[in-house]
Amino acid sequence: MKKRKKYSLIALALAGLLLLAGCSSKNLTSSSAGFWNQFVFTFARIIQWLSFGGTVAIGIILFTILIRTVLLPLMNLQIKSSLKMQELQPEIKKIQAKYPGKDMASRQAVSEETQRLYSENKANPYMGCLPVLVQMPILWALYQSLTNVSFLKEGSFLWLNIGTKDPYYILPVLAAVFTFLSSWLNMKAAPERNNMTLAMTVFLPIMIFVMAMNISSGVSLYWVISNAFQVFQTLAIANPFKIIAAREAKVQAEKDRLKAREKALKKAKRR
Known about the structure:
Number of helices: 10
Strand order of the largest sheet: 1-2
Distance between the termini: 56 Å
Number of domains: 1
């Protein structure tokens, strides 16, 4: 039930974004009608202002980092909430195994014990979802500004023509690599993994690579910077290697405690 509600919230947000996308003009200008169009165009103006020396690519890089930095508190909240929920999954499975029946009484018992578990651990299954809902319109507006505003499709940077696809496919490769690393790092710390998560870790980078091969270099550059930022953000906020080490240390400490207790009991018996 909780998962269904969570997915319903995400589906509602996606539907809202699709509606906004349908209302958005393909060639946005300062005179384009509608709040969403003006919101997207404001993003384009900020990118233009950050384009030092008239280099749009620099504006894209700086604004992407700026947006990601502003969203950092929300991402921090999302990551910590997701980690807490991951840690509770084994306990939730024990509760479900305790009440395997499909009748109303069993479902009610599972729900009550799960809620008690959340309460005791100060966990909220929706906290990992709400930050995503806030971020999606902002990131979507950034994406639309790069695809629908003409002055962000002009200019060159290094080997790139911002308005056309990367001729050497360097950006598509980097976008796919950083997307994979981001998904892999998020998955690595999970105590349990499922086939869907594993499939998405492989499928999403492939999808990003194929899309980046056929889209403007400006959008590809945004994907590279955004996903690279997310990789470093994960390593800084929720480093999976540190999480795994802490988890193993906790398990080892419990084993050592039990061994010490057994030794103490054996000594007591000898006396």
